[in-house]
Every structure is written in structure tokens, then in C-alpha cells.
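# nightly structure sweep
# worker-07 picked up a monomer target from the shared queue
# config: single-sequence mode, recycle default, output format = C-alpha cells
# input follows
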Amino acid sequence: MSEQANRAWWRSPGLIVFVVASVYACVVTYPVIFNFGSIIYGYPGDATGTVATYEYWSWALRHGQSIFDNRVWGAPFGAGWQAVPFPVAIGLLAPLAALIGGIPLYNLEVLSGFPLTAWTTYLVAQRLGSRPLAASFAGLAFAFIPYHVEKAQGHVGQTHMEFFSLILLFLLRWRQGGSQWNLAAAGAFAGLTLWNDYYLAFIAAFLVAAFLAVSFLYRKAGESWLQSLRQHVIAAVIIGVATALFVPVTIAVAQRPSNGGVSALQVQASQFSQSLAEVRVYSSRPLEFVLPYHANPLAPASVVRYEISKLHGSNFTEQTLFIGYTVMFLATWWVLVRLRRFETLALLGIGTVGFLVSLPPGINFHSLVIPTPSLLLNPIFPMFRVYARFGVLVLFGAALLAGLGVTLAQERLRGRATLLLALPFLLAAVEFNNLPPPHVTRILPAPAAYQWLADQPAGILVEYPLTAGTPQEIEVQTREYELYQPVHGHPMFNGATNASQAYSLSNGLEPYYGAGVASELHSIGVTYVFVHRDDYTHDGYSLPQNVAGLNHVQTLDGVDIYLVT
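# output follows
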């Protein structure tokens, strides 16, 4: 590197933040960086299901098949993917999957979310008035806050929180005197958010609304209420129009042709209607913002047990909303000192809106039910059920306020005392840490049964358990079956959505040794049967190998292999 380039490097704190976040992401996800094509960050379930989808897209494009109509799952009927609301990002992700493979694509998507979030949040913090070091703290804190780390273990699309930062960045540029093109840019990034993830787009709409509301109420000097109202109505229209430009493609992807010629949008509309009971399960509770990170090795076991007992039917992927004590302290300090600033009120407004929308649908107070936003929003947007995700706006606002708090510290510290500025970074790193152990899943090499099947003649595979177990267990097992389909290359009966005929037939095919099951499998066209012994006995079934219509071939690593005769 030349001396001139070296000087430019050190004069670009944003670039340093990007590099530091990239390196630290490799630490958090260790040892993924050394096993990029065989290990993923996360656990069986949503993570493996995403990888399986990416692998199918890779296979489909390489074999001239549709990425929307999966015929190798739910065989011979098809997976019923008309019920899956794919985002427009499929247009980028599918070719990348074909180019580099599903596992590397998944890991790349996870790892890139950390530096992109850190860097864009750094830019927002600077725009708010934070000094470079303080802005670096805000960016790194938001990028590695436990919420984000948990999302990286399963909901890969939602790891790209840089969209929130970019939207807010251009809103601030407009508020601080920039042209209306900044509003168009904010709307464009809101549209790109829609293309990436529907939940993030839903949340971003409330971010924009909260900002505009505070901006309207906090008038600039010499501005009348009428002038402010006019400006903000125009701003809302510009943002809305810019976002709307991204809607036709979104609808086109949703409206794609499906099996039987029925619009996929029609199928999705009939399938995705979440009840208030589900919304209540997947909403936030105030304590979740202040209880320590459950995966932190330093968290007391009694506290972790308490957190587990208070999951109210949900899971830590959705309910990890810990702000961080260092972030809370710094943010509170800034608020107490600089409450009357617009930037402070805007961040408080965004966080408050996120907190309120994340609450359960209706709060019971004696015989009264106090309505909350989720209660009112559910009938209008019935496809959304996880309102706890709105808690990210609380975390976003808190991280940016904390960056301003570090700026206060910088203004007060002199000489050697400035070394204390390293303390917030160290404390936050300790609070947000979840190592050891590593939180990864090894995918390759594939289990022996799938390697055996790869060398066998063509035929449909069905794997058991099929419908046995809890919904969570069925989901995890099915996604593992899907994950290894590209390894053995045979179509499989498993993996169908409830829009497929395979799904409706599944309940009548459990257990595998039931009366008439083998005959039904034969009529469907199934050739191979795998029974995962430990899972099957866990579900309360026996493991007879002498079954009429099934020929037991062998047992490999706990999997009984049968041929349908």
C-alpha cells in the first residue's frame, strides 16, 4: 500500500469501522470463515431451511428449472411454493446461489450484514453530531447487539439492518437543510427494504412515520405550523411515491404463476392470516429489553432459567431484545443533558414507537383491555405476527443516543483520561458476547445414508418422522431433509407446504409400518424410505423392520433404509 493510500485509510474512520466490524464478525461466527462451504452460523431450523432453499435455487438454475416451482420437494406433486411469499431479492440471491453455492451464499449474507450495519449506522451517528470515535461506538453497538446476533443465526434477511440506517440518514439530511432528493433516496431505500424483507419494510414504515411526526412537531426557528405541515405533507408524498415505484415488481413476484394456474398471491392471501393469540406470543415484554443476554457465558444460570421460563411460547430468536447496560447508561446520560435537541427527540420518538408497537395486543388492566398498536394493526395487516421485531427500533435509537453519550464523554475528558473512552467498547463487547461455545452447524460432509442414496437408481424418497412430533420438531427435521436433497439428488415426498397435495396426504402415512401405508407409498411412486431411529422413538413409535411392502436394506448411522416393493 502506498504512503498516500495509507494516509487516506487512517483518515477514513468509516472504512475502519467497516473493517473492524468485518473482522469481529468473523470472530462472532467462528469457525465459519475457515469452513465457508461446509459450516453455517446458526442452528437447524430457519437457518438450514434457508440454506436448503438456496441450494434448490442453485440446482434449478443449473438444470433449467423454475426457481418458483419446486418439483423435487413434495414429489410427485410439487412443494406448493405458491404459498411462499418470496421477496424480490430472489432475483439476486438465486443467481448467486448458482454461482457460488447455497452454503457460501448464506454465510456471505450473514457476515456482510455486520459491517454494512456498522458502517451505515456510523454515518447516521456522525450526521446526528457524534464525533468519529463516538459514531464508531454507535455503529458497532448496533451491529453486534444481541438482537442482531440472534437474527444472524436464523433470519438471514433480517440481518441487513443497514436499510434502517440508510433511510434515517437521508431523512436527517433533508431535515438539516438538504434537498428533496434526500426524501426520494429515503423512499428508494424503503422500497429496497421491501424487496429484501417484508417485515423490515413494515418496521421501516413506522420509522419514517415517527421521524416525520417529531420533525413536524419540532418546528424550525421562524417556521409556522402551516409551513411545517405543508413541508411534511410534501415530504410524505415524495417518500411514498419513491417507495411505490418498487411495489409493481414486488406484486409481480407475488403474483407469479403457480401449479394449476392459480395466482400465488391468492394462495398467500388465504394462507397468511395470523391470530391475535399468535401475535400475543410473538410480542415483546418490557423486561426483555433489560434482562442480560441469555447466551452470554457470564449470565447467571438463575437469570437464564428465569428468561427461559418467561418466553411465553416464543423463542430467543424473536425475544432477544437486550439493549445493553453500557448503551442504556450512555443513552440516558445524553437524554438527561440534551433532551431538548431535535436529534434527541427524534431518536426517542423512533424508539418509543418501536416499543409501543412491539407490545402484546391489548394490555389487561382489571376488567379493562387497553388497546395497543398490535391489536389495531392485526386486522389490517393479518400476515404479520411477530411484533417483537419492532423492538429493533428501540435498539436503534438507543445505540445512536449512546453514541451521542460517548461524544459527551469525549468533550469532558482530557489527557490520559481519554483512555477511558475505550471502556464503553470493552464493556459492550463483554455484555454482548455469546462465546463460547460457537453457534454453528456443520452441514457437510452429508450423513452416510444420503451419500449411499446418491449412488442409487432414480426414485422418490420419503423420510420419517413425517408428521410425528411437535410442530417445531417437524419443522427442524423437514428442513434437514430438504437440506440434503441436493446431496442425494432424488426427489422427495417431504418438504411440501400446505398448498401441496403431498401435505394433505402426509397424515395418513404415519407410521411407516401402519396398515396400507406401504401400498399407498407404492401408488404415489415412492421407492426409498428412510427412518431416523432416534427421532422416531422419541416420538413414541416403534421400529419394526419386518414390514409388509417394505424391504429393509441396511441401517447407516442410525437411519433404517427401506425399499418399497
